[in-house]
Amino acid sequence: MLPTLIRFNFNRSATIGFIGLGAMGRGMAANLLNKTFEGQSGVYTYDPDKPRPAFVVYDAFPEAANKFLTEHTRAYAGRDVLPASSPAGVVRLASTIFTMLPSSPQVEEVYLGENGLKEGLESLGDEKRAETLFVDCTTLDQAVAKEVANEMRQVGAEMVDAPVSGGVVGAEKGTLSFMVGGPAPAFERAQPYLARMGSRQIHCGDSGNGLAAKICNNLLLGISMAGTAEAMLLGKALGLSPDLLASILNTSTGKCWSSEINNPAPGALPHAPTPADRDYTGGFLSKLMAKDLNLALSASKDSGVPLPVGSLTSTLYNKLSAHEEYSDRDFSVVYEYLKEGMQGGVAEKVMEKLNNNRKK
Hints:
Strand order of the largest sheet: 3-2-1-4-5-6
Shape: globular
Helix content: 40-55%
Structural class: alpha/beta
Distance between the termini: 59 Å
Largest sheet: 6 strands, parallel
Strand content: 5-15%
C-alpha cells in the first residue's frame, strides 16, 4: 500500500483518518470524505504535481470497512480512500483522526491498546506528533475521556471530545450538533472538519465537557421518549388516532423532539416516516440509550445530583437492552415494549423498582 501512496504524492499532514464505521460513523465519514474532496466547487480535481490528501479508514469489523470502501472509492478512482490494518496504521498515515466507537472500553482499546493510536503515534517523529489531532465523537464515561486525552497529550498530540446529537439521520444528512470539550486551539483546528459533518459545533470548555453536555442531553432525550411513548399509547387506548394525537401534541405544550421528529407510534407522522414506521430500524439503538442513561446515573453519583426520573427511565431502557427483541432497534421501540406489557404488568413492575430505589 505504501508505495502506491508515495507514487500519488501522499501528504500525511492533509490526510484524514476515520475509525468506526457503524450506524453513525459511516454517515459521518461519508460526509467528511465527500465534502473534503469536493471542496467549494463541488468537483474534485487531481493535480499530480501537488501533495494531496487521502482518506484512511479502519473498523474492527472488516466487512464494515470493505462496504465503505466499495461505496466510495469509485468516485475518486480508488486513489484516495484507503484501508488501514489497525488504529496504529491510521495515525501513521493521517494527521487528523476521528473516532466513533460504542463506548469506554472500545475507546481505551483503540487509543491505548496494542496496535492502538498511542502506539502508532509513538513511532513517529516529534513534528508529526505535534501536527496530529484526535477527535473522539464517542459517548463514553467522562473520566475515561479525560484520561485518554491526557495520555495522547503526553505523547505530543492534541485531542478533543466531540460527542454528537442528531442520530443516524443527522449523520447521513450532515446536520449533527457537536458538543466539544478541549483546549480552544484544538477546537479551532477541529471545527472546519466538524462543519463538514454537522450544522453546529459548540465549544463547551475543557476536556470532558463535551461529554458532560451530551450525557445531560441524552438523559433528557430518554426521559422525553419514554413520556411520549406513554402519551401516545394512552391516547390510542382512549380512542385517538396516532396522527391526530401527534398533531395536537406538536402544536401544544407537550411538543418535543420525540413527538415531532421521532414519534414512537407507527403512523403518527404520515408525512415524515420515523423508525416506528420501519419496524423501529435505522435509528438510535435501545442498548445505546441504556448505555447513555447509565452514564448519566454514574455521573449523578459522582456529583451528588439526584435523578429520580432518570433512574426510572434507565431501569426501563436496561430492560429493553437486555431483551433480544428490542436491544438492536430504535429506542422509540419503548412504545412497543409498553404496549406488549399492558397485560403483563410491566408498568407495575417498573413502579415497584422506582419505589425500591427511592427507599435506598
